[in-house]
Amino acid sequence: MEIRFITGQRVLNEAEPDLGLGLVEEVPDSRTVLVRFPATAQVRRYRLQSAPLRRVLLRAGQEAVARDGRRFRIESVEIQDGLVTYLGGGEVLPESDLEDKIPLADALDRLRAGHLGFPGDLDLRREGWEIRSAMLATRTRGLGSARVRLLDHQLDLAHRVSRMEGPRVLLADEVGLGKTIEAGLIFSALRALGRAGRVLIVVPESLVHQWLAEMVRRFHELFNVVGMSALGEERVFSSARRVMVPLGVLQAGLLDEACRHRWDLLIVDEAHHLRLGQPSYAAIEKLAARSRGLLLLTGTPARGGLENEFGLLHLVDPSRFPDLDSYLRERPHWKAAAQAARDLQTLQETTDPEQRESVLKALEQLYPGDRSFLEALEDFRSGREPGIQTLLEALIDRHGPGRVLFRNRRERLVGLFPGRHLHPVPLPRTGPGGEDPRLSWLCSFLDGHPEEKVLLIARRGITVLELQEDLRLRRGSRAAVFHEGLPLVERDRQAAWFADPEGAQILLASEIGSEGRNFQFANHLVMWDIPLHPDLIEQRIGRLDRIGQEKPVEIHALFREGLPEERLFRWHHEAVGSFVGPVDGSDEILHAVDPRQNLMGSDFPDFLERTRQLVQEYRVLASQNVDLLVDLNSFRETEGRALREEIEATEADSRLEEYLGMALERFGVQDEETATPGLYRIRPGQMMFVDSLPGLREDGMLATFNRNHALDREDLEYLTPDHPLVDGVLSMLLDGAEGSASAVRWRGAPAAGLVLQGLFLMEAIGPPRLELQRYLPPTPLLVSVDLAGRAWSGALPGAHALERLQAPTVGALSARLGPRLETLVEKAGALAVERLGAWRQAALEKARRALGQEQARLEELHRVNPAVPVGEVQAHRARVGAVLKALNQAAPRLDSLRLVLLEPATS
């Protein structure tokens, strides 16, 4: 029968289903039809008489998916003027707005049409759904999949930030504590929760390739880099959803284009360079207003003074930090609250009633109108609950910057750093023949440590080039170089060559090598010269002394005796302590003692002593200025440890590893364990019957599920739930129609008959931001009915004992059964509804309990802390209502069918 085509109808080209779902664009005359296929950006013209087109019509009970991501179960279908509209769950969707993928054929349709899978497909889908369900239900989604060491402070921070309604924070951990990893973990968690669709990362141009590599290697995400070549192009940011751009490129002409879009997350690295009143600050301020989430990364938020710190906090939350004057007025209260918290901690070590009362009175004066806090203090005073820890948490909740500022310090993170060893290298003024004695020492050192990687940093780029040539002439070996005269791509090549175990032994870097680049795979640092500023020494050491460093950092400080550099070394070593760690108040100390003028004076011992006293004063002052409440809030040790233990327990379960092996075999992919336990070689097999699998190269891969193996070897793929191969295989098995219908013969059954098995999924449908899987992940249930529609409780043998029925046999069976087949599916569905109803109620109770607690806490936080805006409270309240509505509408969906023909053994 000829179809009457109308503009706006959705159709399928049965000869080329890979084109996707078509949209009738035009019917120009009585003989032809013009069809656009948006998924593949193709337009085809067909003759009506021979068009291989079929109308795509969904029916009540099926799921409708809109182009904008909305999903709902169809309750009714309306047809007007030849066009279909789908209704359900309060949604109205014209067929022209359906997503451009081909809707899955119903399992019953595939069974009747003879599109049959293998005997074990239903079991494979069932186990796959169980695995996916467990992955979706865990609170560590996205955190455990990153190729990083599991560090408690990073897990705690990333988990809390990613659960915020609008995650906008200043990540200000001290240098070397892994801010890039923390930002990546937050992104990974938000991506897993469906809340990081459009992401923009803004970084200095020199760090683009480093960030790009980190996001691919650690988080399985390849960002699109927008460079200067994009200037003048239109719609640069339209198609790419994950974008990385240098700040300079934005300012050069792409800022307005970037601001035309809404972003889910904006990440800005090296944020301390943003200064109020400067164009770069204005650019990020404008962009931040277009983003729901914002992560500002800096190890030195106060560099440039309080004005700079305010500027960063204003970017994060302009309504909470509207102007500098109010910020400065609030700071004394924050400082007093932090001191009160410190005093409160001391009560754990004293029973002095006068000291105890003094601390409590100070707390009362800080929050005179806060009734709930005053009641908690009175309970504490009278010996009732709460304890000191509960009072500290109440203070954290009320602390001004506590919700938006995170700053972890090395002092709290015990055991993460192996330490530093300083090796002073005094040398004569000149070597034999007037040669620089430092060169002779360097050649000797490299010859004596042939297996060690060495980073050498010098002040100037010209020194690096001269050293490169000297080493070539003296040792006949090439050194990697890294200086400001190199193009960015060449710098990346040189850094990669140094990182390669078979590459350069030494990297010669100018001072530019001391900011942003990480070389913790090396542990020898040679200081060719001694910087004047203590911060530059710390920057140099910080390239090696950071998380991931497994050996003590060996610092070789070269200086020639009798020259000013000897006294400069002694001043840093004996008075300032520059080689030990960051120097508090370094700018002020440098200005006060003025080493340029006093270093070579006759009173050098007195100069050292004056410096020591000043350093000690600033050390004490810095200790007193540590905001204890920010400190405690930045890392909640109990929570971080619990998250790590949950991830470790998940990784100890081998079910995903075993399942992936079976799934790859189903697709004809070779999966062989190597001589190293836990290490697999995966490659396309000769019998592979899919064109490609996501994440699997033509030449295959070496892969592991073991985190330690993955961290030790760069050449291994780390297989986690979020790895493209694992996610792709699960998607092909569970989200596609392949294998959703099968038919088998069981020879040797205890009795003759016919059984229909249906795999149903109890699921709730809604936008990803609702995180419905926290309460009701897609939960599989296998229901079997006999020919009479009664529940069948028999047990089938394994798939190997079942014989695959061919399409003609199944077609004959289907014809004999007629409408009874659909009745059996309905009977199985009714049993599923009966059994799964309790799961819906349990999910509703779980959501009411968890979200109710979150709502109550948010409302209390808003009452006591202006850093929690009313908009966040209202957004969460609306979210609670939407979650409960979606869960209440949860219903079982038929996933797959297996028809089983029972044949008793013949005697």
Report on this structure.
With 907 residues, this protein is of the alpha/beta class. It folds into 6 domains: 10-103, SH3 type barrels (Roll), CATH 2.30.30.140; 130-135 and 637-734, Dihydrodipicolinate Reductase, domain 2 (2-Layer Sandwich), CATH 3.30.360; 143-320, Rossmann fold; 331-403, no CATH class; 418-615, P-loop containing nucleotide triphosphate hydrolases (Rossmann fold, 3-Layer(aba) Sandwich); 739-904, no CATH class. Helices cover 42% and strands 19% of the residues. The strands form 7 sheets. A 7-stranded parallel β-sheet has the order 13-14-12-15-16-11-17, sandwiched between helices. It has a 6-stranded parallel β-sheet with strand order 18-23-22-19-21-20, with helices on both faces. A hairpin with an 8-residue loop joins strand 1 (10-13) and strand 2. Helix 3 (152-162) crosses helix 4 (179-192), helix 3 (152-162) crosses helix 22 (637-652) and helix 9 runs antiparallel to helix 12. The radius of gyration is 33 Å and the shape is globular. The two termini are 52 Å apart. The model has no long low-confidence stretch (mean pLDDT 88).
